[in-house]
Write a structure and sequence with these properties.
112 residues; mainly alpha; 70% helix
Length: 112
């Protein structure tokens, strides 16, 4: 379960960033010379759904991985600026915050 939710979080972080790109392109087309709203109509709801999914998965992974409050708040805040979820996901992975398997037990040091 832990592995599946963590992998879903990584996928959601990437998908949320990609949906930001699509939405930004849609907004450029809407307000630019083509003056066409179709991109925003399509990618707005997709981005909104991925935004909510990312937030829910942040909370789930934070609980499963036992994150402290500050990284959890930062992860949630990263859903707002474009592409920040990618940076947070990479940062968290480098720090071992997205491990999918429990750490192996270390043998006790000999006494004496």
């Amino acid at each position: 379960m832990r592995e599946k939710i963590t992998k879903l979080f990584v996928a959601a972080a990437i998908a949320e960033a990609c949906s930001w790109l699509a939405l930004l392109i849609g907004m450029a087309v809407k307000y630019g010379p083509p003056d066409n709203e179709i991109g925003v109509k399509i990618f707005g709801p997709i981005h909104g759904g991925l935004f909510v999914l990312y937030g829910l998965l942040v909370l789930a992974v934070a609980r499963l991985q036992r994150w402290r409050l500050w990284p959890t708040v930062v992860a949630l805040a990263c859903a707002v600026p474009p592409f920040a979820t990618l940076f947070f996901e990479r940062w968290a992975a480098r720090r071992g915050m997205l491990r999918t398997a429990p750490e192996p037990d270390r043998p006790l040091a000999p006494v004496g």
